Amino acid sequence: MKQQFNALLIDDEPAARRLLKSLLHSFQNTITIIGEAGSGKEAISKINTLQPDVIFLDIQMPDMTGFEVLEQLQHQPNIIFTTAYEQFAMKAFESFSIDYLLKPIKEQRLEQSIEKLKTFGVLNNQIDTSGIREFIEQLQTAKKATALPIRSGDRINLVRFETISFLEARDKYVSIHTIDGKKMLTDQSLAALEEKLPDEFYRIQKSYIINKDRIKEMHRHFNSRYLFTMDDKDQTKITSGRTYHDQIKTEFGL
Asked: Is the confidence at residue 254, as pLDDT, over 80?
């Protein structure tokens, strides 16, 4: 059974590639990183040239989706999809990937993927492209979304992304705080809302997601935490979770 795998990291965000590379360092006895790609076009060229055993493939990239990359490959590697959107990840999983990882990637979840890869070995599966076009349309629709739909009784409020300062989970509800000091409650989970939010929203602890475009200041805090001051009416201060320290350092280039 194959126990050493050459890997290619594919993601348009350098910070995401750095984080994954850092996490994979713990698995260097199994994974050897032979290259990186920051776009779909570059990924196709490197996959066909380097012929990696496995690729860590971001589903959403500016020039093409991960599925469009797969349609143009001559070499067929094993695939571990990476995505910030769980519903997309499940679709990816159904397309013969070894596994999928939700962003921000956690070391324990990555370890599960590596163990699964070791168990399966090199599958040489042919990707089933049926339904991919429909899926791509779903991705494109998601990219065009400009507001978060929040149900209130029989009404649905559309909260524009640019007006949101942060989201806070407390008890069974999540509060959506806007820059003008207003607050809306929803019974949707923070994880479910996270899937609907665009890339400028970032989870800094288990109970908070903040709008990166609405950060006024951030400072180092004690016990491996960071203190964020939001540019909203109340100048809200939010402390990050200790377990998010490394991801935040990578995300903000600290």
From this structure: no
